[in-house]
């Protein structure tokens, strides 16, 4: 009976660990208790989007299994690195990678700094990811960041997803889609949030036309004066 109890406890821990990889712990706890998870409003968060430059053409030259292996290598690399930062991985869709800081646990004014350091790390890391079927090929990342308010909540009953909603999400996505290879494109809101530390090397990009937003003044995040990316 004691052995069976220990086995049951071990299996339960494994199930909980898996659930916590898919949903925030606070949300998972409510769902386990069959409680309704209320959507929550956050005044300020920072959202990061990235995708692989030329992914469509890369995928066209590969078998489906090779695409899966390539993306798995990339995301295992990214997932291990973001653990060093106060961030939450929201989801991956194909070659798109979405991360947020400032929710589900609020962290004051740290969210822009955490995402900025993480993004510099990921842009450096992508060059080291091996493409098994293209040993001489190198992946390139295109990244975008925006800071602002949003709402977060669980949608769906089967395979529930923790999703973010609001214009901040859309603008962060636009920062990524208008970025360039191996560049981190940030909005003026993120720029203002990062100015408080005076720790970042930032270069003005000027005004650009952003779909659905009109002209926006944006910047390139180049580096951090006091922080070097992980080896």
TrEMBL record:
<keyword id="KW-0325">Glycoprotein</keyword>
<dbReference type="GO" id="GO:0007168">
    <property type="term" value="P:receptor guanylyl cyclase signaling pathway"/>
</dbReference>
<dbReference type="GO" id="GO:0035556">
    <property type="term" value="P:intracellular signal transduction"/>
</dbReference>
<keyword id="KW-0732">Signal</keyword>
<keyword id="KW-0342">GTP-binding</keyword>
<dbReference type="GO" id="GO:0005525">
    <property type="term" value="F:GTP binding"/>
</dbReference>
<dbReference type="InterPro" id="IPR029787">
    <property type="entry name" value="Nucleotide_cyclase"/>
</dbReference>
<dbReference type="Pfam" id="PF00211">
    <property type="entry name" value="Guanylate_cyc"/>
</dbReference>
<keyword id="KW-0141">cGMP biosynthesis</keyword>
<dbReference type="GO" id="GO:0001653">
    <property type="term" value="F:peptide receptor activity"/>
</dbReference>
<dbReference type="GO" id="GO:0005886">
    <property type="term" value="C:plasma membrane"/>
</dbReference>
<dbReference type="InterPro" id="IPR050401">
    <property type="entry name" value="Cyclic_nucleotide_synthase"/>
</dbReference>
<keyword id="KW-0472">Membrane</keyword>
<keyword id="KW-0547">Nucleotide-binding</keyword>
<keyword id="KW-0675">Receptor</keyword>
<protein>
    <recommendedName>
        <fullName>guanylate cyclase</fullName>
        <ecNumber>4.6.1.2</ecNumber>
    </recommendedName>
</protein>
<dbReference type="GO" id="GO:0004016">
    <property type="term" value="F:adenylate cyclase activity"/>
</dbReference>
<dbReference type="InterPro" id="IPR018297">
    <property type="entry name" value="A/G_cyclase_CS"/>
</dbReference>
<keyword id="KW-0812">Transmembrane</keyword>
<comment type="similarity">
    <text>Belongs to the adenylyl cyclase class-4/guanylyl cyclase family.</text>
</comment>
<feature type="domain" description="Guanylate cyclase">
    <location>
        <begin position="46"/>
        <end position="176"/>
    </location>
</feature>
<keyword id="KW-1133">Transmembrane helix</keyword>
<dbReference type="InterPro" id="IPR001054">
    <property type="entry name" value="A/G_cyclase"/>
</dbReference>
<dbReference type="GO" id="GO:0004383">
    <property type="term" value="F:guanylate cyclase activity"/>
</dbReference>
<keyword id="KW-0456">Lyase</keyword>
């Amino acid at each position: 009976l004691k052995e069976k109890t220990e086995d049951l406890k071990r299996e339960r821990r494994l199930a909980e660990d898996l659930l916590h990889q898919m949903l925030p712990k606070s949300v998972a706890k409510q769902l386990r208790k069959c409680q309704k998870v209320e959507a929550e409003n956050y005044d300020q968060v920072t959202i990061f989007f990235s995708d692989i430059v030329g992914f469509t053409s890369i995928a066209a030259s590969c078998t489906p299994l090779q695409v899966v292996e390539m993306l798995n290598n990339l995301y295992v690399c990214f997932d291990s690195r973001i653990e060093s930062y106060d961030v939450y991985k929201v989801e991956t869709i194909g070659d798109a990678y979405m991360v947020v800081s400032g929710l589900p646990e609020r962290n004051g004014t740290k969210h822009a700094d955490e995402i900025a350091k993480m993004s510099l790390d990921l842009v450096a890391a992508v060059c080291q990811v091996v493409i098994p079927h293209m040993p001489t090929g190198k992946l390139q990342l295109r990244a975008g960041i925006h800071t602002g308010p949003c709402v977060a909540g669980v949608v769906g009953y089967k395979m529930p997803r923790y999703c973010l909603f609001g214009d901040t999400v859309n603008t962060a996505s636009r920062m990524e889609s208008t970025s360039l290879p191996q560049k981190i494109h940030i909005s003026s809101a993120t720029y203002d949030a990062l100015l408080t530390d005076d720790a970042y090397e930032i270069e003005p990009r000027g005004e650009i036309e952003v779909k659905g937003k009109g002209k926006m003044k944006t910047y390139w995040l180049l580096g951090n004066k006091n922080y070097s990316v992980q080896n």
